[in-house]
Design brief:
The protein is α/β, with parallel strands linked by helices. It has a domain at about 85-105 and about 210-385: Rossmann fold, CATH 3.40.50. Helices cover about 35% and strands about 15% of the residues. Strands 4-5-13-10-11-12 form a 6-stranded mixed β-sheet, with helices on both faces. A hairpin with an 8-residue loop joins strand 4 (about 85) and strand 5 (about 95-100). The longest helix is centred in the middle third of the chain and has 17 residues, at about 205-220. The termini are far apart. The relative contact order is 0.13.
Length: about 400
Amino acid sequence: MKSMFTDVAECSRCGEAFSCDKVLTVCTKCGGALLFRYDLARVAEKVSKSVLKKRDNTFWKFVELLPLSSSDGIVSLGEPYTPIFRFSGTTFGNVYIKDDGRLPTGTFKARGVAVAVSRLKELGVKRVAIPSAGNAAAAVAAYGAKAGMEVYALMPKDVPESNLKECVYLGAKVFLVDGLINHATEIAGRLGRKYGWFDFSTNKSPYRFEGYKAMAFELAEQYSWDLPDSILFPTGGGEGIIGLWKGFKELVELGWVGEVPRLVAVQSSGCAPVVKAYNRKDYEVEETWENAKTIATGLRVPKPYASYLVLQAIRETKGMAVAVDDEEIVSSMKTFFKKGFYACPEAASTLAALNKLENEEIFDPNEKILLYLTGNAMKYFDVMIIEKNKIPLLRKDTTSLT
């Protein structure tokens, strides 16, 4: 069952080609991440900016650039274009935010998962396993339920309770892992081979990249094809950065935009393997981050799979990787709240990074900067700490606060 405008996925490491007719994970020769290649000349014959403008504002409007055989196979929960707002909470003059917390299940994970589940359903996949820090599992549980798939979710035992409840209520078979996301991924791989599960792990499913690249298409149209100069993006496994990079490169090849924006990967100082590798000019993350700990659980990925692609995306776009402390993240969450934006800890890291880089002359004072808000804070209230004993308790007969 061929996709509309792509017949092949290529290994990003060794170049081996794989047919799109089969269920794909990673390269069977070297283990590299697979990336779909499209006949963009044919796409350009069928689709134009004016054609896209007439379609509904959802990332499915870019269906010719997704690995589906037809639009009939789409599994949707009603994904809207997410809004872009001008943001005045910094000293920079042209800062914007894009709020993906308004997607189904409350995070940007809905993008990659929606496309992946749609294609896997076309290919007849019935059972999938997702090792996740929480949000990806929730998205797979939701879209898997809609598609009639059996979903196995493996999450660290300290996963935010909201994510855990979400997966259970959506009907996923949930297992808590005594360890971190890398341990969950190892277990999912072992059990997947034994029980015939499709491995939905981050950067091990080429279909997920395709959903994330739609962020680039959506952004481009929302900016009237005049892209931001820099995009700050929260980075755990790195699939969001990879997706943006791939999507923008396809737009450049189509001739619809001029160049790819500078991509800035933001991590927590409590788990910053990509930042460490970037600063050391390494090809990929070579060492597992020890004692990973952060309030932003989605950034707690001690050793991302296919990290070489994340680093390639950063360097190719003349971007960078920066780490921020949990204290800076919490402070930025409060700033977002006061401005009316419910940014989760991962999302708030982007503002923390911008503030941290303010005096380092990284950004031109007049350039357009986009902070990508990847999720909604309402999913994290159970991990946000307050000193409840310092909140006054009023008696029933209280008549004054003095």
